[in-house]
Each structure stands twice: as structure tokens, then as C-alpha cells.
Amino acid sequence: MNRKRLYWVLQILGWSGYALINLFLVSLDRRITLIQIGAYVSLALFFLVSTHGLRLVFKKYDWFNLGFPNLLARTLLALVILGVLNTGAQFIINWIFGTLNPETDFRWIVVSGNIFVSFIYYLLWVMVYFLYHFLDNYNQSLKYQAKINEIQLNHLKSQLNPHFIFNALNSVRALVDEDPGKAKLAITQLSNILRFSLMMDRKRTIDFESEINTVKDYLNLETIRFEERLKVKYDIEPSAFDFKIPPMMLQTIVENAIKHGISNRVKGGLIEIKCREGLADDLIVQVKNSGQLRNNAFGRKRDGEGHGISNTIQRLKLIYGEKASFKIYNSGNDFVITELKIPKQNLTLG
């Protein structure tokens, strides 16, 4: 149901309910007549028309963009005016249906009471309308922000595909002439990785097992290229497989470690991947690699993080908000550690 139809359904049901409740209260004291039915239905119709008119004023003069004091003052003044008009409408309706009693209905205390009661009814209507309006706007704002985040996330993921495929193809190319047998194996592993990279476009997070298997294929591919220059170690606790992780996030970190760490060392080095469940029910992923983090190393630039690191940080923020963390730091004189903390199925996007 769209908002316009919902508005009219609630208007009709609400003021019809007002008429029925009043008629029920009258029936407790005396028998209901057609005149009383006509009078209360007419009054309910006036409430419906007048509140709709107030809504048109809100929209035409853009009252919701006013400051709170200004909005409050204008609304209260409008409700007082409507209370007076409603009381006048009651006099006219009673006169039409022959139930007007000038001796009592025109007494100041009765007129004041009718204005006050009408004011309360309008106030309740305005409170419900304002509440719906602000909740609806808040919901639309959340949807808009989620859509923007989704667009940004898809853009970040799209950056990874060509970057990763280019590096992987370079690894295979180096083997074609040197060792055709290894090249065939490398192509098989590359096809697995490419299949995974295509899948990432359709999912925000995937099983940790799928991600680590792709990382293993990638490191196997790199081991063929680097031979004895690359050593790989895994220390993965079984609890890590209960988590989901953004696709190619660990892959990007490992690739970054190869590019800026191992490949820059004549003797190569070590890649060690540790994954465990933290005390706060989060996944802690550490990638330790030979090398040292300097001002322009590991994808960092003088004015901030480079492509791989900044991409990872932005994706974490878009998916998990402040619930995830990223750190990269030197460990002694020979190693760099990149650490991720990812909450368990606690996403900020739908």
C-alpha cells in the first residue's frame, strides 16, 4: 500500500471510529436515533476534511523544514483556530438536525469546553501525523544511505577484480615458457580464483571457508612463481569457519603482502595466516609477512593509504560500521602484521 492510500485509509477509519465510539457512549444512556447518527457522522466528516486541510497547509508551506520553535508556535495556533471552527461547525450541525439548544449550547463554559475538546482531538491527530512523518522520513533516509553505501561498496569491489586478475595473469605468464606443466596447474588454480572473483559481485559476505580456499589457491599459484623464495604457514582455528567475511578481503591483504613484501626481497620470505575467534565473539585475522612497513610501503602513500589498504578499510566501514577494525604495523625488524577484527554476522547494511 502506497503512502497516499494508507493516509486515506487511516483518515477514514480513524474518524469513523470517532463517530462510532461517540454513538456507543450515547447508547449507554439512551436509544440512538437517526438524527444522532447523522449529527455524529457529519461531525466526523468535518474532522476528516479539516485535518486534511491542515495537512495540505503543512505540505504547501513546507512547515516541516521550519525550526522547532516556529513549527510548534504555528501548529498550536492552527489547532486553536481549528478548535474554534469545529465548535462553530457543531452549532451548525446541531441546528441542521434540530438538536441545538441555545440556552445551554451558547453558555461560555460550554463553548470553551467544546473548543478545548476539539483542540485535544486535533492535537492527537497532529501528534500521530508528525510521528508518522518523521519515522517515514527517517526510514527513507536510512534506505537512501543504505543505497549509497551499496553503490560505494560495489564500486570498491569492482576495483578489486581487474587489479587482482592482472596480477594473477602475470604469475601464469611467467610459467608458460619455463614450465608448461606447472603452467597448466597454475591455469587451473587461476580459473578457480576467477570463478570466485565473479561470485563476489553478488554477495556482501561469504563463508570464511570459501575465502580461505581462494587464498590458498592464490598462494599456491604464487608459490609456483616464487618457488623456494616463498614460504607459507597457516594457523586457523576451527571456530573461524563459523564466520562470514567480505569476499576477497583476506585475498587483498595477502596479495598486498606479496606485492610489497615478498617480491621486494631477494631471498623472499614468509607469509603466515592466523585466524581465531576473539573474546568479543569476533573473528581475528592476522597476516604476517616478511618485510618492513615504511612511508611508501605496503600500498601506503604520503597522503594516506593506497589502493589495497584504503579499499579494505572503506569496505569494512561500509559493511560493519564501527564494529570492525583494521591495523597494520611492524613486528620487530623483519615482519609486518596486518590484523582484521570482524564481528559475527553483525552487518550495518541489509
Describe the structure in your own words:
The structure is a single chain. With 350 residues, this protein is an alpha+beta fold. The chain is 63% helix and 14% strand. The chain has a five-stranded mixed β-sheet with strand order 2-4-5-9-8, covered by helices on one side. Strands 1-3 form a two-stranded antiparallel ribbon. The radius of gyration is 35 Å and the shape is rod-shaped. The relative contact order is 0.07.
Which tags fit this structure?
350 residues, five-stranded mixed β-sheet, alpha+beta, single chain, 9 helices, 9 strands, two-stranded antiparallel ribbon
Please render the helix and strand layout as text:
Layout: H1 3-27, H2 34-60, H3 68-96, H4 102-105, H5 108-176, H6 180-199, E1 206-207, H7 208-226, E2 230-236, E3 244-245, H8 249-260, E4 269-277, E5 282-290, E6 300-301, E7 304-305, H9 307-320, E8 325-331, E9 335-343
Parallel strand pairs: 2-4
Antiparallel strand pairs: 1-3, 4-5, 5-9, 6-7, 8-9
Helix pairs in contact: 1-2, 2-3, 3-5, 5-6, 5-7, 5-9, 6-7, 7-8
